[in-house]
Structures are given as C-alpha cells and as structure tokens.
Design brief:
Layout (H helix, E strand, L loop, with lengths): L1 H42 L3 E10 L2 E12 L3 E13 L7 E9 L2 E5 L14 H9 L5 E16 L4 E14 L6 E13 L2 E15 L3 E11 L2 E11 L2 E11 L15 E16 L5 E18 L3 E18 L2 E11 L3 E5 L3 E3 L5 E10 L2 E11 L2 E10 L6 E11 L16 E12 L8 E19 L3 E18 L2 E12 L4 E4 L3 E3 L6 E9 L2 E11 L2 E10 L5 E12 H7 L1 H4 L6 E11 L11 E11 L2 E3 L10 H5 L18 H4 L1 E14 L2 E13 L2 E11 L2 E11 L7 E11 H8 L7 E13 L7 H4 L1 E13 L4 H10 L15 E12 L2 E10 L5 E9 L3 E10 L6 H6 L7 E10 L3 E3 L3 H22 L5 H27 L2
Parallel strand pairs: 4-6, 5-6, 34-36, 35-36
Antiparallel strand pairs: 1-2, 2-3, 3-4, 3-5, 6-7, 7-8, 8-9, 9-10, 10-11, 11-12, 12-13, 13-14, 14-15, 15-16, 15-17, 16-19, 17-18, 19-20, 20-21, 21-22, 22-23, 23-24, 24-25, 25-26, 25-27, 26-29, 27-28, 29-30, 30-31, 31-32, 32-33, 33-34, 36-37, 37-38, 38-39, 39-40, 40-41, 41-42, 42-43, 43-44, ...
Helix pairs in contact: 11-12
C-alpha cells in the first residue's frame, strides 16, 4: 500500500511537471497571439505585445510592452501588465484577481473628428446565458495603476495632462464596499499659460443589486474640497445625498474661479446642500450658499472698458431647486468704492467715489422680505423696500425712492458731458406690483419722475454720427405701466437744443447756434399716449404735432402735423439729401404720419406711412443725374469706354418705406427748374405723389423758348432712371433748341417754332435704350420751318435740268427750305413715321409726302411736289401745272437726311412728256382745223415720237434707270 502511494505521488509530480513544462513552452505564445489577434479585430488597429510570461505562485500572467494606436485618436503604451489570481480561498468559493499596470501612458488627440466605434452585439444566446447563469464563485478584482500618464491634445494650442497617476480600485464583490483611490497632478496648458492642479479622490461605496451608498466620498481639486455621502435605492429609484463643497481660501487656488474677474482674490466659498431624488420626479436640491469676506484686487481691460482696484463682497442665501431655482433668503453687500472704472467715452469713476449696493432680506415662507436695499453712487442714493414672492400666484410689492438730489458734480463721471458742469435736480418715486412669474402683468408706476433745471453738455462720437453741445430741459412725468404696455401717463417737457451740434452721416446735420427747441405736453388716452401739444422750432420753420403713440421701445404712432411755412433753403442746410438739389422757396404742409419706427433699422427701413397736402412756392430747383444724359446717337453710345465704370444712377427719392407708403396731394409753382443743362421756367403743377409715383397736370411758361401744358403727367421718383408719360399741348416750341438738347449732332438739321399736340411715353434720357424705347405721337404745325438738307425745290430742279428734252432752263437759286410745315407723325423703335408731312415755302413751292426717318438718319419719303419756279421749258410747265401754275410731279426721297437722294421714275418723265404732247396737240388742232385730219395726225405722232425718243434714251445713261 505504501509503495502504491509513493508510486502514485511520483506519477502525479511527473504529470504536474509535464503540464507546467508544456504550459511554459506553449502557453505564452498562445496568449500573445490571442491578445494581438483578438485585440486587433476588436479595435480595427494593430495591437502589439513584446513578451508574455507566466508566474507560478501566485499563478498569473506577465505581459510586457503592450501597445496600440486607435485610428490616430488614442495611443496606448502599457510597459508592464501583471495579472495574478489568489486562490487561497478557493475552497470557500472565493477568489481574488489582481491586475497591476506599471507606468501606463495614454495619448488622446482631438485634432480630428472622433472615430465611429463599431461594437459587436452579443448574440441573444450569449446575453441570456450571461444574465441567467451567475459565476459559481465570488470574484473580487483589484486594479492598481502605478505612476501613469494620460495626455489629451484639445487643439493645436491647448493640452491637458494627468501626470503621476496612481489609482487603486477594488470591485465586483457585492458583499463588500467598492473602494476607489485616485491621486494625480492635472496640468492644463494653453499657449504660454500653464496651471498645475493636484487632484485626489477617495471613495468607499457599497454596491448591490438593490442599492448604492457611500459613507464618504472625498474629492479635492486644487483647493476645492467636495464631500459626498448618502445612498439610493435602485428598485424603485429613490435616494438622498448630502453635498458639502468648500473653498476655504480662494488665494490658495492655482487659478481663480471662472465667474470672477482676473486678479488676486481672498475669501471663502461654502455650499451645504441636500439632494433628494425619486423615480419619475425631478431631483430636488435645498441648501445654503455663502461668500465670506470676498476681496479681489483685480485688473480688467478691453476695447470699451477698464476696471482696476479692489472689489469687496459678502453674501449668504438659502436656495432651493425643484424644477426651478428659488432663493430662501438673501443678505449681501457689493462695494466698488475702491475700484477705478472707465467705460470708453461714456463713464469714469475714480477710487474713493462711493459706489455700493447693499441688500438685507429675510425669508418668510415663499416671500423674500426686503428690509433694506440701498444703491449709492456719489451723491445719488436710491432706496428700495418691499417683498418678492417666489410662488407662481404670489404677490410682490417693491417701492423705490430717489429723494430730490442735486446733479452738480456728475460731469466728473459722465464723459459725454465734456467736462462742463451739470445742473439740475432729480427725484424719482417708483412702485412695482404684481406677480413676478407674469412680467407682462406687472404694474410699474413712476409718480413722479422729475428733472428740474437740467443743463448739461453732451459729447458723443460714433463712426457715422456725433452729438456735441449744451442741452437744457425741464421734465415732469407720471407714468403707470403694466408690463410693456403704458396704461396712463402725464408728461410735460421743455427742452432747448440750440447749442447742440448734431451729425448723422448723409442724413442730418445741425450746427451750433441754430435754433432747435421742443415743447411737449402729453397724457395717456385709453391704451395710447396722446400728444396734446408738440411744438418743434427750427430755423426752417415750426412743426406742430398732435396724435397718439404706443410702445416706446418700438413706437407705433399716428401723428398729425402742420408747418405753416417751411423754408427749403434752410432745411437743405440740415438735410444733405435736399442740399444737392439746390432747392429754395417755402412749403406749406399739413399731414399725417403713421406706422412703426424701428430704432435698429432707422428711418431708412422702418414701415412708415405719410399722407398729407403740400403747397409749394419754389423759385429754383436744380437736379443733376448721376449718369450722363443721352445726348448722343446710337453709334456714340456704342463707343462708350466700358473699362471705365459708370456712376450708379440714383433715384430722386431713396427707396425707404416712408416714400413707398407716401400719399401726398401736391400743388405749387416752380419758377425755374435746372435739369442738367436744360432750363425750364414757370412750372405750375397740381397732382399727387403716391408710393413714389407723381401724377398730375403741369403748365410750363417756357421750355425751348415755347410753352407747354401737360396732362396725365406720370413718373416714378423711386426709380433711378424713371420713365415719363404725358399728353402735351405745345406752342411755339423752338425745334433747334429741342434737337440740340436731345441730340446735339442734329441741331443744324431743322429749325422753326412748333405748335400742336404730343403724346409721350419716354424712358429716362440717361438710359442707353432711350431712343429705342421712347414713343411719341404728334400733330404739329411748324411756322418758319427750316430743313437744312431737304431743299426739295432745289434738288428737284437740279434733276429736271439734266433731263434731255425737259431741262435747259436757267436754275433757280435756293436758300434752303424755309417753309411752314404741317406734320402728323409717330416715333417708335428709333423710327419717325410721317402719315402726313406738308411743306410750303415762301416761293409757294409745296411738298406733300409720307414715309419715315430713322435715328441713323436714313429716310424714305414719297409724295407730290408743286414747284412755282421749275427748271423746265415753258411748254412742259404749261401742260403739267396745277391751277396756280406750279409744276406738279410725283417724287421719292431716299438715302440719308444729311444727303437726300431724289428718285424720278420713268413713269414720271413719261407723264410729263405725254401731258406736254397732248397740250401741244390741242393747240395744233385749234390752229389747223382746216387741214386734213390725216396730215394733222401724222404731224402729231411724229412730234410725239421724236420727243419721247430723245428724252428716254438719254435719261437711262444719266440716272442709271
């Protein structure tokens, strides 16, 4: 038996040695391959291990230099990993597993987007197995992390490091508390700034399937101490935790809290709170907050403000959070007396000038009773008292008083005053009543707000606006409002801004010494502020106003106004928009202005509507278009140098809503209008201006040395290059002057004085398509008309003189066509169509024609000419004349207006010859009635054939016909 046991033991030892030997040679490579393969598949990035070894007691595994890089986001290096199992208590169904990481290093980069993790889902079978089959023994895991480092790169200039990271963690044995012990150094770097914070967290927490609790969890973050204790039941969720947070010495913190300005701070911050939570309900927190002896020596500066000096504050309050935050009581003092304050170009407070806010309040149920609230700045002292309710249905009542206080000396602090003394007395008595949770129903009253004998100098400069100069005012107001709605008001204001200089770029400018006074008496009427009397006195005239105003923040008003006499020349000195038109004269105005004024948008974009009546007497108005006028023909327009940008044309009226919604009845007299180089005298107009469109009737005493009366006149003043339409009766209009203005190269083509009617629809002369799109229809009589190129009597005579058998008579000298002209025409698409063109010269030469003339000077006119003196033999004139003895023949002018070409057709010559032959035949018949009929007829035929052959054969070579 003994030998059996010895033999069995030897065999067991041999087998154990064999197992250990096999494990020593084959298990490490297998574990290494398993870690690298499974790790690489799980991470999607290579996992590398330098070496895997075994320890025999306690049994375990050693892994050296495990490293991986996860898509450039996380890089991990673990120089040494030890995993061991303590199986000494294996027979009591318990085991310890200890994991030790030596000097681990983790690098995290947030310079690019985070990679998307693709975690595999466990199968349903695996999930059910893991959930339903508990481990056969209790396993406790101990994790030790020694001297680790974690580095997180936030951006190119910022980084956070955890250095000397030591962590101890024990968990997974539900019968004993989980312990957690962390100590590290938190290093934050941003550009050249470095901050080192010691961090320590220590916790003992009991965790089970039904609850979680902690007797003490302590955390210290660079001087901020936090203590947490309490517990929560998990099913159903319910618990309570006690939170104690303290900063005993702010000066000991490596950096001040973010809510404080930069500087050196002293004092303490203490928070004690109890947090409770329950399933399906929001968490509740109740506690106290205390700032004790807070003192800061601070310095802050930016482009608009500068603060330097000492801030003192103390505060204590109870608070509660239950879906919303509420204070249970409050005591606080903020003292800025020892602080230098400079707000750029507006406010300056030196040290030692009192600047303090003190509040003493107590809690009574849901009401905060304000026993004392006092604001003090220099000599101004405001006091408040009352109660504030935190209940949704609670009633709050606060009164604010500023006793009569002289304002003398405030100019030292208000930079806008320009250093000049401020005078006057201010007093305020105000009340606030209602439910704070319903601000739209809060009642606010000022009874009164009084400013007596106020005098100050304003100094304000901005990029496009400036104020400079003294202002005087007396104000007495009683205001009662509910929310933003003014319920009742009584206002009396007298102000004098004569010494003020005001500038708003391109819109308004007023010089020092120009009178500007405002008097206002107003009271509340229903839901509106009623202006009973408003008078604005300016050098240009006095504006009287009355009407209603609602919502001062975004005024909606309906104001009626009148100006007995407005001096336009003086007004132009204030309004650059008018000054460029050189307007003079005066205007009588009465009207109504309604709509909404938006302070953010200004008058340029606010929806305002203007209705009224204007009666004007204007001696002179000068308007110059931004673009050059159309004084060239089509060819000239094409030669414009496109490399040089043209100035953008501007409308007469800017496209503001006030002009788009304007409806004015207008009448008046404009003695002289200058439109570029065109002068028009004696304009009388009566019409209306609706939405920027002027329509009405005009009378012109003198334009192009004539007179005109226009009916149905219409043009849109909101368009940069507006079209104009009208029907006109003109009298004695000088054609040469008109042609010189429309197209100077035509100025010598024609002259005369025109009388008749015109229907016109013309685009603006500065437009490139002026000649193409303008339409004109007229019926004119032109007295003493002169056409320098169309000397129709001379041209016809020159042609006739060269016709063999017809010409030969001495030519009649011509001085051009000076005649009376009667014309019916229509101009459209650059073409002038004459349905009737009749010319009669002083020599009784007459042309009746119809046809067309284009703007390129080409022409085609056909008709009948009557010549009193023609270059033809007497016998031709005798038998081809009208009753007054003038030669009659059909003609056609073609070619260019500058060089017209006359066309005499074969039929024209034949007709002249045949008429002459027939006339002579009649004469022969009378002289030789006794001759034989055959002889007479022979002589007639012979004579007829000779004349015809001589004229027609030679005419072909001469005229190319």
């Amino acid at each position: 038996m003994r030998r059996f046991f010895i033999t069995s033991f030897i065999i067991l030892v041999v087998l154990l040695g064999l197992v250990i030997g096999l494990a020593h040679f084959y298990l490490p490579p297998y574990v290494k391959s398993l870690i690298e393969t499974q790790g690489s598949q799980a991470l999607g990035s290579p996992v590398k291990v330098q070496e895997v070894g075994l320890s025999y007691w306690p049994p375990g595994v050693k892994v050296s230099q495990l490293s991986f890089d996860y898509q450039g986001f996380v890089g991990v290096t673990l120089p040494q990993i030890r995993i061991g199992a303590d199986i000494s208590e294996i027979f009591s169904r318990s085991m310890f597993v200890q994991v030790e990481l030596g000097q681990p290093q983790v690098k995290i980069s947030l310079l690019k987007p985070l990679p998307t993790a693709q975690a595999s889902r466990p199968s349903e079978t695996q999930s059910q197995t893991s959930a339903s089959e508990p481990l056969p023994i209790a396993v406790r895991v101990r994790l030790k992390l020694l001297d680790g480092k974690v580095s997180v790169q936030l951006d190119e200039k910022s980084r956070v490091d955890l250095e000397k990271l030591n962590l101890g963690l024990e968990f997974l044995d539900l019968s004993k508390p989980l312990t957690f012990d962390l100590q590290t150094q938190l290093l934050m770097q941003k550009e050249q700034t470095k901050i080192m914070l010691p961090v320590a967290i220590k916790s003992s927490m009991a965790v089970s399937e039904s609850q979680i609790s902690s007797e003490s969890t302590l955390m210290n973050l660079g001087g901020l101490s936090l203590k947490l204790s309490g517990g929560s039941k998990l099913k159903p969720l319910k618990g309570q935790w006690i939170i104690v947070a303290e900063v005993e010495k702010l000066e000991a913190l490596p950096m001040p809290p973010e809510f404080l300005p930069p500087g050196k701070w002293q004092g303490g911050v203490f928070v004690n709170a109890v947090a409770t939570h329950e399933e399906a309900k929001p968490p509740q927190i109740k506690g106290t907050l205390k700032l004790k002896d807070l003192v800061g020596d601070t310095y802050f500066k930016n482009d608009t403000a500068n603060f330097e000096g000492v801030i003192k504050a103390s505060m204590q309050t109870g608070f509660e959070y239950n879906s919303k935050f509420s204070m249970q009581g409050f005591t606080g003092i903020v003292d800025l007396t020892e602080l230098d304050i400079l707000i750029h170009k507006q406010f300056k407070k030196p040290r030692t000038v009192p600047f303090k806010l003190e509040v003493l309040a107590s809690q009574q149920g849901t009401e905060l009773l304000i026993q004392k609230a006092e604001f003090l700045f220099a000599q101004i002292k405001a006091q408040a008292s009352g109660k504030l309710s935190s209940e949704s249905t609670g009633y709050s009542n606060v009164s604010i008083q500023v006793p009569p206080t002289p304002l003398n000396g405030l100019e030292k602090y208000l930079l806008a005053a320009g250093g000049e003394p401020i005078q006057g007395t201010l007093s305020v008595s105000a009340k606030l009543e209602g439910q704070l949770q319903k601000p739209e129903q809060l009642n606010v009253s000022l009874n009164p707000l009084s400013l007596k004998g106020f005098r100050a100098r304003l100094q304000f400069d901005k990029e496009d606006s400036a104020l400079s100069g003294p202002v005087t005012a007396d104000l007495n107001a009683v205001l009662v409002a509910q929310g933003r709605n003014l319920k009742s008001a009584q206002v009396s204001l007298k102000s004098d801004l004569t010494g003020l200089q005001v500038m708003k770029k391109d819109l308004f400018q007023k010089k020092t010494g120009e009178i500007l006074k405002a008097d206002l008496v107003a009271n509340q009427k229903g839901s509106l502020l009623s202006i009973r009397q408003g008078v604005l006195t300016t050098p240009a005239g006095t504006l009287n106003m009355s009407g209603t105003l609602q919502d001062p923040q975004r005024p909606r008003f309906d104001i009626r106004s009148s100006i007995p006499k407005l001096d336009l020349k003086k007004l132009s000195a204030w309004l650059p928009l008018l000054s460029k038109y050189q307007v003079t004269g005066d205007v009588n105005w009465s009207g109504r202005l309604a709509g909404t004024y938006d302070f953010a948008k200004g008058i340029e974009s606010s929806p305002l509507k203007l209705e009224g009546k204007v009666k004007a007497n204007i001696p002179q108005y000068v308007f110059k278009s931004a673009a050059p006028t159309a004084k060239s023909d089509v060819d000239d327009r094409k030669t414009h140098d496109e490399s040089k940008p043209r100035a953008k044309p501007l409308p007469i009226l800017p496209s503001w809503p006030i002009f788009k919604l304007m409806n004015l009845a207008m009448e008046g007299d404009l003695n002289r209008l200058h439109y570029n180089d065109l002068a028009i005298n004696g304009i009388g107009f009566k019409g209306k201006l609706v939405a920027g469109v002027f329509s009405g009737n005009l009378k012109v005493a003198q334009v192009f040395s004539g007179q005109a009366q226009m009916t149905g006149f219409q043009t849109n003043l909101l368009q940069p290059q507006p079209s104009t339409s009208f029907t006109a009766q003109v009298s004695k209009l000088d054609l040469k002057q008109a042609l010189n203005w429309v197209s100077p190269q035509w100025k010598d083509l024609a002259s005369g004085r025109a009388t008749g009617t015109l229907q016109v629809n013309a685009v603006h002369p500065s437009r490139d398509d002026f000649l193409e799109t303008t339409w004109v229809k007229g019926d004119w009589n032109i007295a003493d008309g002169f056409l320098s190129t169309l000397k129709f009597d001379q041209i016809i005579n020159e042609k006739l003189a060269k016709v063999p058998g017809l010409g030969g008579k001495t030519l009649v000298a011509s001085k051009g066509v000076t005649s009376d002209i009667e014309a019916k025409f229509e101009y459209a698409k650059s073409k002038l169509n004459f349905s009737k063109l009749r010319m009669v010269t002083p020599e009784r030469n007459e042309l009746n024609s119809s046809g067309w003339v284009k703007v390129d000077k080409t022409m085609d006119l056909s008709g009948t000419a009557h010549l009193a003196q023609a270059a033809v033999p007497e016998k031709v004139l005798k038998y081809n004349s009208d009753s007054s003895g003038r030669l009659v023949l059909p003609i056609r002018f073609t070619g260019s207006v500058l060089d017209p070409e006359l066309n005499l057709l074969d039929t024209t010559i034949k007709q002249l010859v045949e008429n002459t032959a027939k006339g002579e035949l009649n004469e022969v018949k009378k002289q030789a009635e006794s001759r034989a009929k055959a002889e007479v007829q022979k002589q007639i035929d012979t004579q007829k054939e000779n004349l015809k052959n001589q004229a027609v054969d030679k005419l072909k070579g001469l005229f190319g016909q």
